[in-house]
Amino acid sequence: MTTLEQLSQTNSQLQQTIVNEFSALDLAALNYKPTPESWSILECLEHLNRYSQYYNPALARAIADNSDGSNVTSITYSWLGKKSLDIVRPQNGKKHKTVKHMNPANSTLGLATIEAFLKHQQELQSLLQAAKNSNLNKKAIPVEFFKLLKMRIGETLEFIVMHQERHVQQALRVKQQAVYSEGSSLSLIAGC
Questions:
Q1: What is the rounded CA–CA span in Å between residue 72 and residue 173?
Q2: Which of 2, 70, 160, 185 has the smallest set of CB atoms within 10 Å of its CB?
Q3: What is the SS3 string spanning the chain?
Q4: In sequence order, which residues have a C-beta less than 8 Å from that of residue 85 and are 6 or more positions away?
């Protein structure tokens, strides 16, 4: 069973990974794509930014509306939550198509994408702390692409963190491919 503390630790680790692994890269490296169909590091992060723009405010409302003292701090899962978590689990190597408006492919992106990601991570960290005083099993978060379906607060928090972990791992693989690609003339560290 996942706890808010575990999600908070993972979220902090993701922030550190972004700072440590990507902040020194130049724009060519950040926009490197192993294949024309794959995402660059910045596209991976922009995809997560788009999800955060929807889910962070939805979570903030749900947590505020369900912090009436009847807090339930253990996360239980609905069928929708289990299915959603199985899809985004970092260990799930199966590729999944994203909805069109969440697909950042071929976007023009810069360093502001990283700054926005880190800002969203700080917001999420605050939401994870605030959620300690709410009912995590309240169905209150409309699913972004089909708002008639709702996920529970706790499983949505876990979905967001796992989804981010999945795509940060994808971005790390892109960085590794950029470093080791034959004949690559990318300057991966600013100033080199």
A1: 37
A2: 185
A3: CCCHHHHHHHHHHHHHHHHHHHCCCCHHHHCCCCCCCCCCHHHHHHHHHHHHHHHHHHHHHHHHHCCCCCCECCCCCCHHHHHHHHHHCCCCCCCCCCCHHHCCCCCCCCCHHHHHHHHHHHHHHHHHHHHHHCECCCEEEEECCEEEEEEEHHHHHHHHHHHHHHHHHHHHHHHHHHHHCCCCCCCCCCCC
A4: 77, 155, 158, 159, 162
User: What's the one-letter identity of residue 111?
Assistant: L
Q: What is the pLDDT of residues 65-81, one digit of tens each?
A: 988 767 666 788 888 88
Structural domains in the chain, CATH included, are 4-17+30-180 (1.20.120)
Residue closest to 77 by CA, chosen among 164, 165, 157, 166: 157
Q: Using one digit for the tens of pLDDT, what is the confidence trace for 23-60? A: 889 999 999 999 999 999 999 999 999 999 999 999 99
- Of 107, 89, 99, nearest in space to 43 by CA: 107
Lookup: tokens for 60: 């903030």
Tokens read off for 133: 């005083």
What CA–CA distance (Å, rounded) separates 187 from 31? 12
Cα distance between residue 90 and residue 106, in whole Å: 24
